[in-house]
Design goal:
This is Beta-barrel assembly-enhancing protease. It comes from Falsiruegeria mediterranea M17. It holds the Pfam family TPR_16. It is built from 14 helices and no strands. It is mostly helical and 281 residues long. Among the domains are: 52 residues, no CATH class; 53 residues. α4 packs antiparallel against α5 and α12 packs antiparallel against α13.
C-alpha cells in the first residue's frame, strides 16, 4: 500500500521536474534570442556608419534576401548603396522600401535624395510634393532648397535654405550650398557672408574656404580671407584666387598669386606650375 502511494508522488515529482526543465529551456532560448537581436542591431549600426560601404551592401543584401519582408534590412541596403555611390541601385532599393508596409515619410525623402543623385530632378520634385507638409525635417528642406535652386526659383530656395539651417545643429554644409546658390546668381557679397558662416561652423570644410575665395575674387578682392588654414590649404586657395584673377583679365595679379602659391606649397605644386608656365609662354 505504501508503494502505491509513492508511485503517484514520484510521477508528480517527475512531471514537475520535466515542466521545470522545459520552462528553463524556453527561458534560455528566449534569452539567446534577445541577445541575438541586440547583437544584430549593433552590427547593423556599425555597417551603416563605419564599415566599408561595399561590405555593408553585401551584408545587407544577404540579410534582406533571407528576410525580404524586414523593412529595416531593406533600408540598410538602400542606405549602404547610396554610401557606396551606387546611386542607380540606390533608387531601386529606396523605391522598394517606400512601397513596403511600415514605410515612413523619411523613406520618400531618402528616395528623393537618391533621385537627385542620379539627375532626376523632376522625379525628386514630384516625390517631395507628395510628402505631407507636416513632415518638417532638415533633410526634406535641404532637398527642397536644392530643387528650387535647380528651377531657378530663388525666393523659394532662400526660404527652404533658411528653414533647413534652423533645423540642424550642424548647418555648415547647407550654408555652403546656400552660399554657392548666391554665387551662381551673382550675389557675391551675400555668398561671401554665407561661406564665412559655414567656415565658422566647421573649420575643416575646405569646399567652403575655396568658395569663399571665389566669391572674393569675383569682387576683385584678391587677398586671402582671415580663416583657419594650413600651409597646403593656403597654397591651394592662392591657386584658386590666381585663376579667378586671370579669368577676369587681371593677368599680372594672377601670375603673382601663382608664384606665391608655388612658393607656399610644402611639396611640388604641379598644377600651379603648369598654369604659370602656360601664362608665361
Amino acid at each position: 500500500m505504501r508503494h502505491l502511494i509513492l508511485i503517484p508522488a514520484m510521477l508528480a515529482s517527475g512531471l514537475a521536474l520535466s515542466a521545470c526543465s522545459e520552462s528553463g529551456d524556453e527561458t534560455v532560448e528566449r534569452a539567446f534570442q534577445d541577445v541575438n537581436v541586440v547583437d544584430e542591431t549593433d552590427l547593423n549600426d556599425v555597417m551603416l556608419t563605419v564599415a566599408d560601404p561595399n561590405e555593408a551592401v553585401d551584408y545587407f543584401a544577404r540579410a534582406a534576401k533571407s528576410n525580404p519582408d524586414r523593412i529595416d534590412l531593406q533600408r540598410g541596403l538602400a542606405k549602404s548603396l547610396i554610401r557606396a555611390k551606387r546611386n542607380t541601385e540606390g533608387v531601386t532599393a529606396w523605391t522598394r522600401v517606400s512601397k513596403m508596409d511600415g514605410a515612413r515619410p523619411d523613406d520618400s525623402v531618402d528616395l528623393a535624395d537618391a533621385l537627385i543623385r542620379t539627375g532626376d530632378w523632376d522625379g525628386a520634385e514630384k516625390l517631395l510634393d507628395s510628402v505631407p507638409p507636416t513632415h518638417e525635417t532638415f533633410k526634406r528642406y535641404r532637398l527642397e532648397a536644392m530643387v528650387a535652386d535647380a528651377n531657378r526659383e530663388w525666393s523659394r530656395a532662400d526660404t527652404f535654405y533658411e528653414t533647413a539651417v534652423g533645423l540642424t545643429t550642424r548647418p555648415a554644409s547647407v550654408m555652403n550650398n546656400w552660399g554657392y546658390s548666391k554665387l551662381t546668381r551673382g550675389d557675391y557679397a551675400e555668398a561671401e557672408r554665407l561661406f564665412g558662416d559655414a567656415i565658422r561652423q566647421d573649420q575643416s570644410l575646405f569646399t567652403a574656404k575655396n568658395n569663399l575665395v571665389l566669391a572674393r575674387g569675383a569682387q576683385r578682392n584678391y587677398s586671402l580671407p582671415v580663416i583657419p588654414m594650413d600651409q597646403m590649404e593656403r597654397a591651394q586657395l592662392l591657386h584658386t584666387m590666381a585663376l579667378s584673377a586671370i579669368k577676369q583679365g587681371d593677368v599680372s595679379t594672377g601670375k603673382g598669386l601663382l608664384r606665391e602659391a608655388i612658393a607656399t606649397h610644402p611639396q611640388h605644386f604641379e598644377e600651379a606650375v603648369r598654369s604659370l608656365r602656360a601664362l608665361e609662354s
